[in-house]
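Tutorial, part two.
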Amino acid sequence: GDLAVKIPAGKPSRIYWMDYVPNYGFAWLIADNDGRGYLLNKGEYTVINLVYDSAKTMLRKAITFIEGLPSDVPLSENVTQYLHEAQELIKTTESLDERNKALNGWKALEKTLKAWEQAILDYSNYRIQKHRMGELALDLPPRTKANITLDYIDLMFSPGWDLDMSNPFIRGLQRLSRFATIEPYPYMNKDGSIPEEKFRKHYEDFKRGLMAKRFNAPGGDLAYNWIYSWNVLEQPEDIRELIAPFNLTAVMGVTKKHLTDLINLSKKYGVNLKTIEMMIEYDKVAEYAFRFYKWDKYYYARPLTLKEKAEVARELSQLIHKLDPKIRTVAYLCGVVNVNPRTFREIGSMINHERYATLDTISGLQYFLEKGVEVDIASVQIHALAELGLLNTIDLFNSLQRLDDLASKYGISIGVEELTIPSEITDAEPLYVSDLKKAVDEEFQARLMRNYMIVMLGFPNLVRILYTTNVDASGPEFYGEAYEQLVNQTAGKIRMGYFREDLTPKPAYFALRNLFDSLIFEGECPGTPVKTLAGWYNITLYREDGRPIETYRIHVDGGSTTRLIVRFFENETLKVEVERLRSELEAHKSEIEELQKKVNSLQQQLAEKDETIHRLKEELSKHRETITVTITKTLKTTETVVSPSKDTL
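Running the prediction step on this input gives:
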């Protein structure tokens, strides 16, 4: 059919649109008149074949991307094949009627997107091998073996919020990274201070219960998060008094006290606190974001303006870096990361939206960086299909590339705070057309999970994936009634976990776990260098007979070789003598055991005889006393009776 599209007069324009590409999937498509744009004066119009024009534009973009890859990237054979087929379809279509142009355009789009997606995966795998994988070489003494076990990978990865360690599947993922989030919010005092004993117990529970060795913490955004993400009317009375009427100075004082206690207590109890989230969803703007601040026809509080957000973030990031320069600050961005006309239109329709938020994540990050906010990691949310955002692997790659280009300009890293991929759309809203609902299932989720993880790991500058939605939400009792209302009003009911509600794993879980397993080496060292994901590893050395010798903990760097050289320095003469004595000792082992038994028996007999002697001595002592008395009496009697004479003497 026919479709009318209005464009600005006198300005080159391009058309963005979304549709289902047969035999491929949903995609955002672009038509740009062979790169020139559509240029019309006021009142003029032209007729185009949208599918055919889009096929030419997307093919040109795909070829540009593929030809720009490093020459040593090993591309799959079907990349060249698909591109060739798409080019032939475009060439032979120019002279056809409009209907056949569109039909061949769809076929060309299918081939083009498949080639482009495979090239992205090939390139991502290339960068994983080059930058994230390290080579571990062990140079060991003769007759020595080694066993390699993972401590944790460098990537700060957490498998979700619902970390039930009794679930072996979740425990298996958590073991890879040993990364968890501590959150002192629930028990902090009104002034922001943190009770020390509660903090210690909270930390110990998370450290032991979640097998965590590295930690993240929210805490740099209380002045914003309290009134922006929470329902004000559900807060305790003393909190409501603090933020209504809005008092930024007072809440900043609470935030600073909270941050100071968080960092000082972490130092005191040896918490390996790697990151603190701040600027949580500062760039977010949507109609529901303002809903909570209107009560009984009056606004209870107001959101921060962009200018205020920048001032808060700048002051708090400086405080964090001053308190502990080793802790990295994270800008937790929420807005749409791709060029999405639907979202742009909605945001643009809001009154004074430019005072409160930006159109997309990249624009938001750029705004804050230009205002002097010091962040170490710019981290975004990736919600596949949500609000018709990222629809496929190509969209994800292009969006992360935009983010990485900006972050690299400022010398900072990137990350992903949230990752959700649906496995089922159970209640389709208008934005989820029927074809999209049919296309989404558990196999779709698994394929996208694997592709997304490969793409994310393929960015060397990406240092964290905070969490993935791991368990399907079961309703209001899981997240709360406010969340359930929000879901119903925006996107219907969507199952996004890679575990079902009964905690059984979906194919997406195995896609995720198998990918990591394929990148990590554990087991007995084969004697040759092994490739494994960058991180910390334990190396245990053994004798040939299985006796352990020593254990080492070493770091494997991505993109280089880490070599462990072990030498045992021994005096050869003494070594031979020791081996001879050890051999003789082994030969006389049974004889020694028999002698030991005899010694034990003799010792027992000796103890018994000692006891007998001791007893006899006691009896003898009593007899001696009696004899002495008798003799004495006799002598006395003799002295009395006998009186020798002189002559006798």
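Confidence is low (pLDDT under 50) at residues 223-233, 286-300, 474-492, 628-649. In part three we will examine how such features are distributed along the chain.
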